[in-house]
Amino acid sequence: QVQLVESGGGLVQPGGSLRLSCVASGFSLDYYHIAWFRQAPGKEREGVSCIRNTGASSYYADSVKGRFTISRDQDRVTTHLQMNSLKPEDTAVYYCAAVRYYSDHRGCRDADYWGQGTPVTVSS
Asked: pLDDT at residue 75 above 90?
């Protein structure tokens, strides 16, 4: 059974930090890259960050570059998104996904599997 399970969301003040985690199971990580997307109320879903299946490179959207860091454990099962210097505009539901397409410059797309999402609220 394919599963992507996110955790780590919550309420944080502006300038604070959160660390999201995504545990993958039920499919081969050799053929998929792991990506983080987010969707704010009333807005389209946007790609935030993704990491190549080999772990050799990663991509960040301009809106989070320098503040967010994607990483994964050595067993490749768990992927993390460290979010620092959070802003109110980072408020959204964050989803991890297993995607087939990765580009260092264009990010990730073509998701086959999605997690259930974890909400992040940045507010004072």
From this structure: no
Contact 34, 72 (CB under 8 A): yes
Smallest CA-to-CA distance from 16 within 81, 84, 93 is with: 84
What backbone torsions phi and psi does residue 90 show, to the nearest 5 degrees?
A: -85, -5
Strands 92-103 vs 107-114: parallel, antiparallel or unpaired: antiparallel
* DSSP 8-state symbol, 61: -
Low-confidence winner among 28-32, 56-60, 65-69, 95-99 (lowest mean pLDDT): 28-32
User: Which pair of tokens denotes residue 47?
Assistant: 């790609």
- The token duo for 105 is 């410059």
- For residue 52, give the amino acid letter: R
Per residue in 20-49, pLDDT tens? 999 999 998 889 999 999 999 999 999 999
